[in-house]
């Protein structure tokens, strides 16, 4: 049966089959209750303006509202939703049945999945700042038979239902910080799942509450439309060459002209001298480099580039949509593209421009080897209230936000 003539039921079943297979390819086992929820909720009812085939693409978000060229609301990709629901279920002892859940960011589809997961003795509330979005979510939830989901139009930077505690808060918009209201609304031991920008890189963190702090249980790479309202935080970009940019997610100040002049100088490249199999997972290496760059007193930034600049050889980043880079002593250094060997294995490298380029690349590839030698440890994120004294912080790399102090470590929590 072709995609064009396939029925909605067939497309729905094929999507979930693909999600289960993709989980297995990543070494993950999809929880049975998450699979059952995905098979129960008809996604096309939450994407009524999209083609049926688009509604059931496993890795495709469906944009439901734009302002100009910017997507401000969407029904997230099923692959990402499935992973975040799995994170939530894994982090809560006993799973999600009977739990009380608050979703921040309303598209309707995820709220319906959560309603299936919590069952008749649980509850789901979903909140969004945009009245158009909440009206649409209400209509879609009602059409799909989930009219007992509570839909609220409000800015979730403040408590949605003051005094109420939730077992799970799941955020489906990209956040830069964690406001006090989110922690305050979590039950002790409850879980917050949030796509959080940390050192300019967005990951879905599952964080458990312990008194006034949160400690991560798991994390996954992801991407979401950005938070609006009081919790919004603008990502700045600095153009340093034609098609080459620095993404400045914190309060970094850079001399764009000086860095651009560095890029015009000859490139120095160094290799870690490792031979890694093609399925080696490097997802956590960039956060490791970010913490090592910061701890060394260098300035950390994220390098991005258009494909034309990469093809022209202006830069050779490991990933053109976001590669860790360091500015230090008039030298610009970043993680470079992989070097493949004849036996289909690869090496890790670094590129640098400037007077200290050889030392800078040597330091960066040394940091890569250290991470590999340590067994490629995953990051652990601790979130504490702003103003927490340094002496009360766990050992790690500190990143101060508006409401919080983040501490990243690579040792078990």
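-> sequence recovered:
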């Amino acid at each position: 049966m072709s995609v064009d003539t396939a029925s909605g039921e067939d497309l729905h079943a094929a999507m979930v089959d693909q999600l289960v297979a993709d989980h297995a390819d990543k070494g993950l086992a999809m929880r049975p209750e998450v699979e059952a929820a995905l098979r129960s909720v008809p996604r096309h009812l939450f994407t009524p303006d999209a083609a049926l085939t688009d509604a059931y693409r496993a890795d495709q978000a469906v944009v439901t509202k734009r302002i100009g060229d910017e997507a401000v609301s969407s029904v997230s990709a099923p692959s990402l939703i499935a992973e975040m629901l799995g994170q939530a279920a894994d982090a809560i002892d006993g799973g999600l049945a009977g739990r009380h859940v608050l979703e921040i960011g309303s598209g309707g589809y995820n709220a319906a999945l959560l309603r299936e997961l919590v069952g008749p003795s649980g509850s789901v509330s979903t909140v969004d700042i945009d009245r158009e979005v909440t009206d649409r979510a209400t209509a879609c939830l009602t059409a799909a038979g989930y009219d007992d989901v509570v839909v609220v139009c409000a800015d979730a930077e403040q408590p949605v239902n003051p005094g109420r505690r939730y077992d799970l808060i799941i955020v489906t918009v990209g956040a830069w910080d964690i406001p006090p209201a989110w922690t305050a609304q979590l039950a002790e031991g409850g879980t917050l799942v949030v796509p959080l920008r940390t050192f300019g890189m967005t990951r879905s963190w599952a964080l458990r509450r312990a008194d006034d702090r949160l400690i991560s249980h798991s994390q996954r790479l992801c991407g979401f439309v950005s938070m609006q309202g009081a919790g919004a935080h603008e990502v700045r970009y600095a153009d340093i060459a034609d098609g080459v940019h620095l993404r400045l997610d914190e309060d970094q100040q850079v001399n764009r002209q000086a860095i651009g002049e560095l890029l015009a100088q000859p490139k120095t490249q160094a290799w870690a001298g490792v031979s890694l199999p093609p399925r080696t997972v490097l997802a956590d290496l960039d956060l490791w480099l970010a913490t090592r760059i910061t701890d060394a007193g260098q300035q950390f930034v994220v390098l991005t580039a258009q494909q034309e600049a990469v093809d022209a050889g202006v830069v050779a980043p490991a990933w053109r949509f976001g590669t860790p880079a360091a500015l230090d002593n008039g030298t610009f250094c970043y993680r470079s593209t992989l070097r493949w060997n004849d036996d289909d294995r690869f090496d890790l490298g670094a590129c640098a421009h400037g007077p200290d380029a050889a030392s800078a690349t040597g330091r960066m590839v040394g940091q890569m080897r250290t991470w590999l030698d340590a067994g490629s440890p995953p990051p652990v994120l601790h979130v504490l209230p702003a103003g927490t004294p340094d002496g009360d912080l766990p050992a790690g790399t500190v990143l101060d936000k508006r409401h919080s102090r983040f501490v990243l470590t690579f040792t078990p929590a």
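Residues 1-5 have pLDDT under 50 and may be disordered.
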